[in-house]
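input
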Amino acid sequence: MTGPAVLALCASPSTTSTTQRVLDDLVTPRLSRLGLRVTPLALRPLPADALVRGDAGHPALASAAGRLEHADGVVIGTPVHKASFTGLLKVFLDLLPRNALAGKVVLPLATAHDPRHGPLLMRGLEPVLASMRAARVAPLCCLTSGDLGGTDGSGTPALDEAVDGFARMLRDPAHTTGVSYRRQMSLRHR
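output
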């Protein structure tokens, strides 16, 4: 029996990406050990001209969107750029249908120089995920270079906890680590 399908999306524009390394070397192996099927998706190799034009019919972009459509959960990995997520992530999300995250569990994962940037990133990302109808969003895992100093291939306690919580959310819809966006938004507007 196979577990839920996860898309490990890397939104780093860098060729030497810490975010990509975290996804490939720490997140994907841990999710696989937990019985989840993980498919990587790096946005950097996608054709920039098609992304900027919003050409959702371009074969490479249609393939990427199809991988997202078939996933039960998505790990969105992004470096923090100017206290927000990357423009690469924004243009990719903009070309997807409004309900592209409907029924999906999302784990936001950020790599940053300063951990104080994580909440700033989420201020911009939360409304985007809500508008795309994400079913549940796990708490942000924000890692700094200091968190990733080890060379033994193990994650940090915060990363391990985030990944394990995400896996539980995928397997058990009643697990309460994350918050439904409909519920979260209703609480904010009271």
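quick obs: Residues 178-190 have pLDDT under 50 and may be disordered.
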